[in-house]
Amino acid sequence: MKQHEAVIQSLEKLGGQATLAQLYIEAMKIKECKWATKTPFASIRRIVQTRPEIFKVRPGLWALHSYKSELGLADETAAQVKDTEQSHSYYQGLLVTIGNLRGFGTFTPNQDKNKKFVGTPLGDIRSLQEIPQFSYDFFVKRSRTIDVIWFNARQMPNSMFEVEHSTDIQNSLVKFYDLKDFHARMIIVAHEGRRGEFEQKIQYNAFDAIKGRTNFLGYNALVKQYEYELLQASQSFVI
């Protein structure tokens, strides 16, 4: 079996679309394909970027043209709408997966639980179906709207993530400010092009209390961390 055939077969097995990390793992399982290279992952990246059967959906996510209709991406206008709707849940799914692999309890808002991450509802990926009652009702209620939260073994928030795909970053900073009394990391996740907007707004005097503990994470950096975590978890032994 040729290498590009192994990648296409892996995509088909994964429902027509997959993250690069999923492809790395799945393609290596195909015994009929011999990679004969010390850098098979680089070969897979080259294949998805150059084969006409495959197209890029968003950073780190690739799909087969033959599955466009099934994925709801056949019509260009519909594809743009669907991409906007799904991008937010895609990055939520990356964050939840990383949190799960690191042993945290993970929670996403209940209104997002039916949204999909590479075909799987977020409600099926998060490890917590109800948010822990870690404090007074006001704080717990406010936390329910955070896009992704990682909880430690004591069911206290360890990290809070707000994915800002198209909305105002300032709204997320207000949420973080309301939860400033908790010893948790606060992270804005957005396209790299919005870093300047983040850096400008975090300097507002109103956010002085969270300025030193709120960080920005770009989409591409998030995808790379997801790939690293998934590949590490796939190894039977890590030194």
List the helices and strands and how they pair.
Elements: H1 3-13, E1 17-19, H2 20-27, H3 40-50, E2 54-58, E3 61-64, H4 76-101, E4 105-107, E5 116-117, E6 120-121, H5 122-125, H6 137-143, E7 148-151, E8 157-163, H7 169-178, E9 185-190, H8 195-201, E10 214-218, H9 219-234
Parallel strand pairs: 8-9, 9-10
Antiparallel strand pairs: 1-3, 2-3, 4-7, 5-6, 7-8
Written account of the structure:
The protein has 239 residues and is an alpha+beta fold. It has two domains: 72 residues, Winged helix-like DNA-binding domain superfamily/Winged helix DNA-binding domain (Arc Repressor Mutant, subunit A); 152 residues, no CATH class. It is 42% helix and 17% strand. The protein is built from nine helices and ten strands. The strands form three sheets. The chain has a five-stranded mixed β-sheet, sandwiched between helices. The protein is elongated, with a radius of gyration of 19 Å. The model has no long low-confidence stretch (mean pLDDT 91).
